[in-house]
Amino acid sequence: MNKKAHHSRHSNNKEAIVINDEEDEPKIQKKIKNDDDCILNVDVVPWMSKKTLLIRHPVLRLHNEIIEFFDYISPSDQEHQRRITAYLRVEKYLQDIAPEAKIESFGSFKTRMYLPNADIDMVMIETSCTQKQLFKKVAAKMMKQTNKFENVNLIANAKVPIIKFIEVQSQYHFDLSFNQLDGLKQIEELEKAFEIYPELKYLLMTLKCVLRQRDLNETYSGGVGSFLLFQMILAFLREYRKDFFQHNKQDQIKNVTLGEYMIKFLEFYGIKFDVSRKKIDMGRGGSIENKSTQDERFSLISPQDPDHDVGHSSYKIKEIFKIFQNRHNFLTNYNFKPEESVLRYLINPTDQKFSFLKPAQF
């Protein structure tokens, strides 16, 4: 896994380059295998193509797998349209409750960067009411609409009060917040970052699944939510690129594979980052700084609000970083077999069916 790629694997044209077996080792003659010679368990690794299976170097195989996983797990146009339809039904109901309110979607639903079971994030804005007044008004109405909403969960004591619920007709999960503008401000930042760092979207979707498979993806239960994960990846990418610029080697960034990015990310947070001594200030470009006082909480300062520490609520961060360390050590020391999925050891390390199976795509 330590062998590096010598060809351009990832360019700034906003699309990752899929590696061909010939590009992997052009000087080595290979026996061409028939499809029947490839053993591919589509229930365990449904994203992996037979072409990728034939790549010898695990780090390059991982690069291709990450791209194929992104394509596999991302919502299709039909899937996304079903969510839009459900969102519009909920939006109409909320608008009837509060005609003066402005209702917006944000987060992964807005950017189409969500896993199949992800919540749809919505915010209701009405400046004539306080956050709590609006929360109580909507909660009282929704609790009575059992034909429209189920599993209504009122989280009133959080820093940002939200109502979590399932829309009965679609069975989609929703998170509704009130008079909270941070999520809307984040959309522009997300879209800009995806333009600057084309590798970001691939890392984000893969790592979302890593956390989801371990039930560590919800901030309210101590995990790392989508926006915090996005900020963590962004901070890592900025830090990782510094070395290239400091040594006037920025032209080599395009040669870094997604496999290398993933391993370096796991190393950065799993091994190098000192939670008790360091903090990340996204308002200062993601700079890594010393904490004024040592503590065991993860600290990542919001780019929108210097008084908002996005990382503080993730009280399971040491458990998460321990997983990153474990997976880094495994990926860099395990002797991968030919024709074996590398990515499965990150997102589906058992032999059970993958959680998000879709109809066969290959």
From TrEMBL:
<dbReference type="GO" id="GO:0031499">
    <property type="term" value="C:TRAMP complex"/>
</dbReference>
<dbReference type="Pfam" id="PF22600">
    <property type="entry name" value="MTPAP-like_central"/>
</dbReference>
<dbReference type="InterPro" id="IPR045862">
    <property type="entry name" value="Trf4-like"/>
</dbReference>
<dbReference type="InterPro" id="IPR054708">
    <property type="entry name" value="MTPAP-like_central"/>
</dbReference>
<feature type="domain" description="Poly(A) RNA polymerase mitochondrial-like central palm">
    <location>
        <begin position="62"/>
        <end position="185"/>
    </location>
</feature>
<protein>
    <recommendedName>
        <fullName>Poly(A) RNA polymerase mitochondrial-like central palm domain-containing protein</fullName>
    </recommendedName>
</protein>
<dbReference type="GO" id="GO:0003729">
    <property type="term" value="F:mRNA binding"/>
</dbReference>
<dbReference type="GO" id="GO:0043634">
    <property type="term" value="P:polyadenylation-dependent ncRNA catabolic process"/>
</dbReference>
<dbReference type="GO" id="GO:0005730">
    <property type="term" value="C:nucleolus"/>
</dbReference>
<dbReference type="GO" id="GO:1990817">
    <property type="term" value="F:poly(A) RNA polymerase activity"/>
</dbReference>
<feature type="region of interest" description="Disordered">
    <location>
        <begin position="1"/>
        <end position="22"/>
    </location>
</feature>
<feature type="compositionally biased region" description="Basic residues">
    <location>
        <begin position="1"/>
        <end position="11"/>
    </location>
</feature>
<dbReference type="GO" id="GO:0031123">
    <property type="term" value="P:RNA 3'-end processing"/>
</dbReference>
<dbReference type="GO" id="GO:0046872">
    <property type="term" value="F:metal ion binding"/>
</dbReference>
